[in-house]
Write a structure and sequence with these properties.
Layout (H helix, E strand, L loop, with lengths): L2 H16 L2 H4 L8 H9 L6 H25 L6 H21 L4 H18 L2
């Protein structure tokens, strides 16, 4: 493993190692210790890390915009159902994006990461 990759993994894991259990609740969902550790378990190459970061960032940005848009709508009926349905579509898009550059073995680890991320984002 290249020194740069090892250094990057250490930098990503450092906040997890330094954050206590009470402080972890104050972190955003994607920075929760179990979510970060699951991301590290994917064991991405240096080329894959920026693509992964972009795919997750796009999902979170799109999700935020969608929730805002649906919440502003005039029809409040079934808002949770609409958000859940649209979120499923956004998750599917993120899965498809990940499948473009992750191996089959990495996809299995990514699915664990994705499930932990989604669970951390659920109120």
């Amino acid at each position: 493993m290249k020194l740069a990759t090892m250094t990057l993994r250490l930098i990503l894991a450092l906040p997890v190692l330094l954050v206590g259990p009470t402080q972890a609740a104050d972190l955003p969902p994607w920075a929760q210790p179990d979510v970060v550790m699951a991301a590290l378990e994917i064991r991405m190459s240096e080329d894959q890390i920026p693509q992964f970061r972009e795919a997750v960032s796009t999902y979170i940005s799109d999700l935020t915009a969608m929730v805002s848009q649906v919440s502003r709508g005039n029809n409040a009926t079934g808002i949770e159902r609409k958000i859940r349905s649209k979120n499923n579509h956004l998750v599917q898009k993120m899965d498809e994006r990940m499948a473009e550059f992750l191996s089959a073995e990495q996809m299995q680890k990514y699915e664990i990461y994705r499930d932990l991320l989604l669970a951390a984002m659920t109120p």
